[in-house]
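Pasting as-is:
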Amino acid sequence: MSQQASSGGYERAAGPGWTARLLFWSAMAVGSLPEFVLMPMMIDGVRPEFFTLYPAVTVVVAILELILGVVALLIVKASPMTMRLFGMGLLIFISIYAFALPHLLPIIVNRAVSSVDLAMNIQSIIWTFHGGVVLAGLLIAWNLARNRPWWTHLVAAGYAVCAGLVVAFVEWAMNSLGSSFATSMVLTQFVLLGASFGGLGLLHGLGRVASGPSDRYAAASARSIAEAVTSRRVP
């Protein structure tokens, strides 16, 4: 009984584990590579062969991002497997949404709306909230895998929507100031990536607050029990 308590205490103290954290951070960084590297290269001018390779590269990047994210959620420590599976399911869904929307949105809107101006306005509105929706999915997926309280999901969604609006404003401001498309895209993606890591930091702090002193006391008690058991075994 004491060994089970000590094991649970050590898991809570360890958190999700640095391997899971690093894999999830890597997934977020890998997902930004097309906007950081590939798209500016296309705009600045490269050989025509690159344009034929770009779709295949984006597919590989999307698959790699998804694999890293799913593995990260799968190996999160101190969390029930059910919650990790929920987080993985949400991550898969939001990854498919993020990859498919740029290809399907123009087709769907143009077929549903006859007016070209109205179709452009609808797409602009959807794109304004697109980044926030994707960020909300990523943050809530990590929250689910960490088995955090339900209200932290609401905080994650609200933060993501606000961050998405800020990113959209930065993109609009850059375009209004006459910046090049490549510069605007790189800076916008940099702001979005920073907001993503900022959201993880915010939720980490909220998770520590939500755990309360009782969990910290339980972890300390389990640690003391483990030390006592170890000392008894030492001849």
